[in-house]
Amino acid sequence: MQASSMEGKVALVTGAAAGLGRSTALKLAQAGADVAIVDIAEDGLRETASDVEAAGRKALVLSLDLSERANCATAVQQTLGTFGRLDALCNVAGVMKPGPTTAFPDEAWDLTMKVNLEAPFFLIRAALPHLLEAHGAIVNVTSCAAFQGQAYFAAYCATKAGLTHMTKALAMEYIKEPIRINAVAPGGMMTGLVHGMAALAGCDRELIGRMGSLRGMCEVDEVADCVAFLASPAAKSYHGACINVDAGITAD
Ligand SMILES: NC(=O)c1ccc[n+]([C@@H]2O[C@H](COP(=O)([O-])OP(=O)(O)OC[C@H]3O[C@@H](n4cnc5c(N)ncnc54)[C@H](O)[C@@H]3O)[C@@H](O)[C@H]2O)c1
User: Fold this and answer.
1) What are the strands of the beta sheet with 34-39, ordered from one edge?
2) Shortest-distance atom of ligand 1 to CA 217
3) Which domain of life is it from (predicted)?
4) How far is the CA of 176 from the centre of ligand 1 (A)?
5) Which helix (H) or strand (E) holds 126?
6) Which pLDDT does position 160 carry in this prediction?
7) Is residue 1 part of a domain?
8) Which of 27, 144, 193, 215 to mutate to test the pocket of ligand 1 (most atoms within 8 A of CB)?
């Protein structure tokens, strides 16, 4: 699964300061795209920008908190203002706040909904007219948590199932238009996100153990290859798809 040329094209990648977002931004730059990189973590963004520039492409650093709704439109406007077009939107940013439901804080619920579910919608809403003009693509990063009942992850699972189904609803709404809208559902990857698992100390280990794959973790770069492929014209027949890259977790 490899991205085709993105020469002359522009991609906006959220969550690009680390992990899957950074790898996706780099893959798209290597395919020839200039990249607007969005994240709340400015230091990480600067490192990603260096990687993109080392690949010979331009990077626009957008240090924004996507839990603030207005920042979603700002990210799109600034991308257009700098590069003049938008060909691909990759919604990669996410938070994972696990915990026993009776002790789950309101703030963790609100943040999970805002970053994982609402921000992709408001980014998509702002980007759609420009993506239609460019015959572009949207790729939403969901999770195997969209398909598995994961103990202690009710909020996270709800947002990832919601984003997966939002992808399908949008794919139908725009099925007659020149745009492709897809999702990638990764399994476990060794990134900063999984440090959140520490909050599960003291929870039932048997239930936690049921979330993993017998084949172990997925490689970040391998998942990023899939995101970049769907963002590129190579994926011309993909629309409304959700590709599971999860080492067999959802085979169960
Ligand atoms: N790591 C896994 O095991 C795994 C499994 C399935 C799905 N995913 C999904 O993959 C995506 C990328 O996660 P990752 O594994 O690379 O983790 P990560 O923590 O390395 O990356 C997530 C990025 O999102 C950014 N972010 C968080 N809140 C933000 C906000 N309010 N505004 C802007 N940016 C914000 C973080 O700063 C971080 O750079 C997420 O959507 C995650 O849910 C991860």
Assistant:
1) 59-63, 34-39, 10-14, 88-91, 137-141, 180-186, 242-245
2) 3
3) Bacteria
4) 32
5) helix 119-134
6) 98
7) no
8) 193
Residue nearest to atom 17 of ligand 1 (CA): 193
The parent domain of residue 16 ranges over: 10-251
Residue 77: CATH number of its domain: 3.40.50.720
Ligand 1 geometric centre to CA of 18 (Å)? 8
Among residues 152, 156, 174, 238, which one is catalytic? 156
- In the chain, the number of structural domains is 1
How far is CA 74 from each of CA 9, 65, 202, rounded to the nearest angstrom?
20, 11, 41
Residues 126-168 pLDDT 10s: 999 999 999 999 999 999 999 999 999 999 999 999 999 999 9
Query: How many other CB atoms are found less than 10 A from the CB of residue 193?
Result: 18
